[in-house]
Amino acid sequence: MPYCYTYPRPAFTVDIIVLSKEEKILLIQRKKPPFKGQWALPGGFVDLDETLEQAALRELKEETGISFDTLTAFKIYDAIDRDPRHRTISMVFFKTELAMHNLSVIAGDDAASAQWFSIYDLPELAFDHKKIIRDFMSFLSYNF
Predict the structure, then answer these.
(1) Model's pTM, two decimal places?
(2) Are β-strands 43-45 and 39-40 bridged in parallel, bridged antiparallel, or unpaired?
(3) Cβ-proximal residues to 97 (8 Å cutoff; 6+ apart), any chain
(4) What span, in angstroms and rounded, lies between the C-alpha atoms of 78 and 89?
(5) Which of 69, 112, 135, 139 is the most buried (most CB within 10 A)?
């Protein structure tokens, strides 16, 4: 029997940045609270029986219909108030330089919709996803 801790622990999540050659980013529209109806990066909670990358690949497929063999780790986000439900820490993964016309996007699971947006004209974003995208674009040396 695994040991059970009596003190609270943070939840671990993954977020995924999919960036096309056409400088568009894939976002999902949230189907459930918090931030129901707002746009966000695809992602979700890590299951106990999977690695972080496996969770990211699973969440991306569930929410957008897109499958990859691998993703690249970017950065961890751990601001205390990043999720209004509870303490959440997220590992962000990415895939870049993709041709949009080669990717068929179909919203599913927790996503009401999934679509591409110009990185220069983003909608209002849920959680801290605006900061995550800005950090990532800075990492790629884009000027905002």
Answers:
(1) 0.91
(2) unpaired
(3) 19, 20, 21
(4) 5
(5) 135
- Gap between the Cα atoms of 27 and 31, Å rounded: 13
Q: Can you say whether residue 23 is alpha, beta or left, with left for phi > 0 and alpha for psi between -120 and 50 degrees? A: left
Q: What is the pLDDT of residues 68-92, one digit of tens each?
A: 999 999 999 999 999 999 999 999 9
Domain ranges (residues) in the chain: 11-139
Residue whose token pair is 């974003």: 125
Q: 11-139 maps to which CATH number?
A: 3.90.79.10
HSE toward the beta carbon, residue 89, CA cutoff 13 A:
8
Model confidence at 14: pLDDT above 70: yes
